[in-house]
Amino acid sequence: MAKVLAITNQKGGVGKTTTTVNLAASLAAAKKRVLLIDLDPQGNATMGSAIDKGKLTVTVYDVLIGNKSVREARVFSEAGKYDILPANRELAGAEIELVDIENRETRLKDSLQTVQDDYDFILIDCPPALNLLTLNGLCAAKSVMIPMQCEYYALEGLSDLVNTIRKVRANLNTDLQIEGLLRTMYDPRNSLALQVSEQLLKHFGDKVYRTVIPRNVRLAEAPSFGLPALYHDRESRGTQAYLALAGELMNNEQITVPVL
Ligand code: ATP
Ligand code: MG
Asked: Which of 82, 106, 152, 242 could make an S-S bridge to 28, C-beta 3.0–4.6 Å?
């Protein structure tokens, strides 16, 4: 059975996609079987996995609508060494089309049943909204990873998200857990970041990952090279941080990255 993780935060630009892509690549480097699901019509995780979203004929949209199975829609990302259920702008239409479809919140969950045993990890990159696509991610997942920047409004947004997770748990997915909160784009020289980080640790304790993702230009530029950061600059602090996060997720197993 795969561990299914939704990477979500309704706030935009907090590092969801960067986390999903680099975590997927790190877990794959540790010989884990990984499926990345791009649930965002922006298709950033698709592009970040070096899959050209403009050339796709089958996407996660077809899976949600019921036109294709996951096996038919998934592709292998050579760049990241994992499978991906890709997305492009077509997915924006699913929001509207799903409204009239039966079990609209559990379409993704239902479609994943047949591939649960093909993978160790299924990582779902959610869009920056609490919409029907995100709900599908939250219903399919066993737990939620919340990337967040340690800034002034972060805690406020977090309480909205925690409330949504509570509602999903009450109504749709009783097993849903918060896997952890991930501090992203972290700059320890920023005193506000330090304060917010302290608040997070105070309120959420060991739900906050020990691993902190630093602000690191290699992470930001890697997609333009069509690579996860691991294969762009493996020594960079960003790469090392995501390897450490993958290790934390696998109960602190050490990862030896194969030399390519
Ligand atoms: P959206 O809400 O639009 O989906 P997101 O939460 O997925 O955004 P990303 O796309 O991962 O966020 O990151 C937003 C921007 O910040 C991107 O340009 C990305 O390259 C950059 N970025 C992400 N993490 C880091 C980091 N640790 N250091 C430097 N830049 C980063
Ligand atoms: Mg994103």
From this structure: 82
What gap in Å lies between CA 1 and CA 240, rounded to an integer?
A: 28
Q: Which residues pair with 208 in a beta bridge?
A: 181
Residue 166, token pair as written in the block:
């509570």
Token output for 143: 């737990």
Tokens of 237: 């602090």
Report the 3 state secondary structure along 170-210. HHCCCCCEEEEEEEECECCCCHHHHHHHHHHHHHHHHHECC
pTM confidence score? 0.95
Q: For residue range 3-59, what is the model confidence (pLDDT) as tens digits?
A: 999 999 999 999 999 999 999 999 999 999 999 999 999 999 999 999 999 999 999
Task: Kindly report, residue by residue over 141-167, the tens digit of the pLDDT.
Answer: 999 999 999 998 888 888 889 999 999
Rounded-to-10 torsion of CA 97, 98, 102, 107 = 140
- Residue with CA nearest ligand 1 atom 14: 13
Q: Which ligand has the nearest atom to the CA of 239?
A: 1
